[in-house]
Design brief:
Helix content: 10-25%
Strand content: 25-35%
Largest sheet: 9 strands, mixed
Number of helices: 3
Shape: globular
Order of helices and strands: EEEHEHEEEEHEEE
Length: about 190
């Protein structure tokens, strides 16, 4: 059986899955492309998050990519003008809730983004300027707890308004537009 691999720019409003068995209609990945049977998303992005998502028909590749050895980089638009002090807190690790217990995140890389790459695109309108300023931060993790980046920015006083994953290992979102799918030969260059 030939394995196949895909990069997708998951748009806001889609689930990172192919099947949803609850009553409410949800937008699923299969609506964006005719993926082969057995395709699975490697890791997840929340329904209201967007950006790079890797898909494969190879379950072993999924395990490799989800490992703690592979960095995942996110751009988060936050409420307010984030401070260098908040960035330093993020880098050292902050306490968040996870499955009803307190958890301190591992050290990570975080920095203020002065100019957003055009490839991120406009996204959905979050709010207008009357509600105050926003800013962007890059956060690179090797772990991935449920809604971790959102919880981390909230913990330092700057709630996330928009979240875009731009990199997994050496694979970048590049110029993929929201909803666009690119089939690739392999994820071989996935390591840091």
């Amino acid at each position: 059986m030939v394995t196949r691999h895909f990069l997708i720019h998951k748009p806001d409003g889609y689930l990172s899955q192919f099947i949803y068995e609850k009553k409410r209609h949800k937008k699923l990945l299969g609506e964006l492309y005719d993926f082969p049977k057995g395709t699975m998303a490697i890791g997840r992005l929340d329904e209201d998050s967007e950006g790079l998502l890797l898909l494969t028909t190879d379950g072993m590749m999924s395990e490799i990519v989800r490992s703690k050895a592979v960095e995942k980089e996110y751009y988060a638009q936050v409420d307010g003008i984030i401070t260098q002090e908040a960035i330093e807190q993020l880098k050292k690790g902050v306490e968040i809730g996870f499955k009803g217990i307190r958890y301190t995140t591992k050290e990570c890389d975080a920095k203020i983004i002065e100019e957003l790459p055009k490839s991120i695109g406009e996204g959905r309108r979050i709010r207008d300027e009357r509600h105050g300023p926003t800013s962007w931060v890059s956060i690179t993790l090797t772990e991935g707890k449920f809604r971790q980046v959102r919880k981390m920015t909230a913990a330092v006083g700057f709630p996330t308004l928009r979240l875009v994953r731009i990199r997994v290992g050496n694979i970048h979102l590049q110029n993929l537009k929201a909803g666009e799918v690119l089939e690739v030969e392999s994820f071989f260059q996935i390591n840091k």
